[in-house]
Write a structure and sequence with these properties.
Blueprint (H helix, E strand, L loop, with lengths): L1 H44 L3 H5 L2 E8 L5 E2 L2 H13 L6 E11 L4 E11 L15 E13 L2 E11 L6
């Protein structure tokens, strides 16, 4: 009888604890994801390749819209510095999170829609989705390290004007 009584008192506390921890994990992830997207957008719109790469881990991978793979933060930054000096020098980027979910305790998948405007021209072989606007889907893989979320991998895919 004592165990049943103890169970009735402990169960609500454990339930509250599990819900609180889950909510905290989700809130921290959501807040961090929004902050990463805001920093990415700000970095792009100011043509700052170093700031663009700041949330990527040193050993991160990045696959661009043309399928080119960059195997480190420094390669990603160098490529974006070139783009910011050439075809994307006057461009603006809007990013919207369209999906975010944990993938374990220290990883998450974030899907975004990006809209690029004001570019000199789209990358070779990639048509604008709409006149003057290139729409893409960027998938980010995030990892949690030392209580902060970082980008460990990202892949950008053009959205065809037939799909949107």
């Amino acid at each position: 009888m004592y165990l049943l009584s103890l169970e009735r008192r402990i169960y609500p506390v454990l339930t509250w604890l599990v819900i609180s921890i889950s909510a905290s994990f989700g809130a921290n992830l959501e807040t961090s994801a929004k902050a990463i997207v805001e920093r990415q957008e700000t970095a792009w719109n100011s043509g700052d390749a170093e700031a663009w790469g700041a949330d990527y881990t040193e050993d991160s991978t990045f696959v661009n819209i043309m399928g080119m793979r960059f195997s480190s933060r420094s390669e990603n930054v160098a490529r974006h510095a070139l783009l910011f000096d050439t075809i994307f020098s006057d461009s603006t980027l809007e990013i919207k999170i369209v999906g975010l979910r944990p993938a374990g305790e220290a990883a998450a998948i974030m899907d975004t829609i990006m809209v690029l405007r004001g570019h000199e021209r789209p990358p070779p072989g990639i048509p604008d989705t709409k006149p003057g606007a290139l729409h893409t889907r960027m998938k980010y893989i995030l990892i949690k390290s030392d209580d902060s979320w970082r980008i460990v991998s990202a892949q950008n895919t053009a959205i065809s004007d037939h799909i949107e």
